[in-house]
Amino acid sequence: MVRVMASGVFDLIHTGHISYLEQAKSMGDELVVVVACDSTVRARKHEPVTPENMRVRIVGALKPVDEAILGGSGDMYETVKKIRPDIIVLGFDQTFDPADLQKRLEDHGLEGIRVVRARECADDLNATRRIIRKIRSMERSR
Fold this sequence. Notes:
Blueprint: E1 3-8, H1 15-25, E2 30-35, H2 38-44, H3 52-60, E3 67-70, H4 76-83, E4 87-90, H5 98-107, E5 114-117, H6 128-140
Parallel strand pairs: 1-2, 1-4, 2-3, 4-5
């Protein structure tokens, strides 16, 4: 059995998320998704629109997902050790460099994990920030 791990904020679910998760699921038998905790989202992106417990529940209910778990605010490699994936799939817009992450995993004793990047979804509203911008522009035009 091939276990695949994906991760992200998943604040406002959109077609980019669905495409990412479908691609990740197609690479193995089981897809475990790590949903970023609120403190991580605040530190790296923005104030979360949807609280972490709701995001985990929503992601866990999506068809491609076998299990959704809440990520920790500490060492991400501890989460990877718990999941023990064969493959980690990065979102097309995630800042990790696949080769660098592969090396850092090996440096943490996590060898044999393949790191790949998902393709971008071509839809217009394929990112949370784009959705928020569109909502704001619609509010301004009223």
